[in-house]
Protein 1
Amino acid sequence: MDNYTLTILGCGTMGTAMLLSIMKATFQPYPAKFICCTGDKESAEALQKRFGDKIEASYGESNISAVKRADVIILGLKPYICESVLEYVKSGLNGHQVIISLLAGWSIERLSKYSSCIARVMTNTPAKFGHGMAIVSFSKEAQKYEDLVMNMIGTVGKALKLPEKHMDAATSLVGSGPAFCLLMLQAMAEGAVQMGIPYDIAKDCAAKVMEGTAKMVMETGEHPEALKAEVCTPGGTTIAGLLVMEDRGVRGGISRGVEKAAEVAALLGKK
Ligand SMILES: NC(=O)C1=CN([C@@H]2O[C@H](COP(=O)(O)OP(=O)(O)OC[C@H]3O[C@@H](n4cnc5c(N)ncnc54)[C@H](OP(=O)(O)O)[C@@H]3O)[C@@H](O)[C@H]2O)C=CC1
Ligand SMILES: O=C(O)[C@@H]1CCC=N1
């Protein structure tokens, strides 16, 4: 596919995160044109002002033509309005455009009504800064575009392929994951604030501890339990803190929370 037009249908938080990642990157084949669709005039104007002549912003009726001109469509709509928006722009769909869906809950089968070429993606907000994670599944027909999609989606940070059966779990772990990590970050910072450390310093310390720990896991490839054991001096501070956290059910609470979010993801596509 050369000289192609990429239309982002629903260019909000995640659509814009994808746009920013793609714009910062160089991969081949690179889109020749970007069209960004929103629901209302104000958000289209804000996008046009922000990205200038690098994009064409669209809203309302012109979204039908934006879809018609697209070779590749990134779907960044909320799950509950996706059906009505796709029905509205349906005359612009030719059944063969590559649809890259960022939606939680919507299966490849459900999207197949609009194109045979579907890539289902679950990514997250750190994509805005090039530190995102993405999980990607393909419909059979879309497999011929695998390189293009993986190169494009890989611009968020890191992208891996998984069978679609894991997508609800990925929605929780990857998509909701930043919120789960932020809860822990905020809780750690507040523990320090309680002992008198100013909040801004406590927050920076907690964020750097999380960043450093994540890098240590990725760079060493070691099991987190082994790395955790290295921190625990016998009779020391760490094991004392960890035992209180275990008594309060922190570990099970987080694991069950990840499981619950996946259950909700499975329901979202059915609404
Ligand atoms: N937020 C997150 O962290 C994550 C979200 N997701 C998934 O990404 C998807 C998008 O979520 P998010 O980016 O947060 O949502 P946003 O509300 O930020 O973005 C939705 C976009 O859709 C546009 N839109 C609304 N109505 C229409 C319409 N009729 N025609 C065209 N565009 C329209 C909105 O425009 P306007 O502003 O004018 O209303 C907005 O640009 C969801 O399906 C979600 O499940 C996945 C992973 C993480
Ligand atoms: O909360 C949600 O439903 C979306 C999907 C993953 C992250 N945010």
Protein 2
Amino acid sequence: MPSRLVIAIDGPSGSGKSSTARGVARALDLSYLDTGAMYRAVAVAFLDAGVAPQDEAGVIAATVAADIQISLDPDDRWVRVNGRDVTTEIREPRVAQHVSAVSTLAACRENLVARQRTLMDADPRGCVAEGRDVTTVIYPDADVRVLLTADPQARLARRGGELGARVNTEQLRDQVLRRDADDSKLVDFTHAADGVHLLDTTHLSLDEVIRAVVALAKEIA
Ligand SMILES: Nc1ncnc2c1ncn2[C@@H]1O[C@H](COP(=O)(O)OP(=O)(O)O)[C@@H](O)[C@H]1O
Ligand SMILES: Nc1ccn([C@H]2C[C@H](O)[C@@H](COP(=O)(O)OP(=O)(O)O)O2)c(=O)n1
């Protein structure tokens, strides 16, 4: 394996990106970047500032101005925006409902992509980063690039298992299926680009998925 290793993982909601990326980072002793947490943090920032989701100029201004601090430790996840800890808040349904207002604006993506590249380069050991455009836009030169997929039913069941009684069936479908449809407007995370390994996780356990990605990393001379 190279002395510095970069692993890029993309996929739709509930495909297992975060859990897989954290497991791989632990197994290979690498830093971990949750790029989606940054989109979610910006959503909190614009909502806090009273900006309406339809106000594109307002959402862009809130993105550019957002001071985002994020942990790169797979065992200690936290994110702060404009000085406030929003680790728990970014997982709330109101954030999932409005985060696509950020992800569907090219200017917001450009701003976050530049920060994400810098964060991926911060640790000399290397990094495992996950999101929607890590394999294609943020780090197309990554040593290992993986696109995780899973049937919609499996993804709904996984996200439902996480959120439990906090959401009803309609809210769950909005969080997973509507959000994926909106999020795919500017990035393609359903087809594997050239050189990207496609891994269907529908019938795999989390451990099996982690082992498959670690094996890909170990294949590198
Ligand atoms: N292969 C898998 N089999 C079963 N459950 C999984 C698998 N991968 C992830 N999960 C579970 O599904 C939920 C969503 O996973 P997560 O990693 O947050 O997905 P994503 O980051 O793609 O939205 C978590 O509760 C996680 O433990
Ligand atoms: N690299 C990324 C990461 C996330 N996003 C967007 C798309 C998602 O709706 C939000 C939140 O991403 P997150 O990975 O937390 O979402 P899931 O956990 O997969 O449901 O951010 C993106 O557009 N590009």
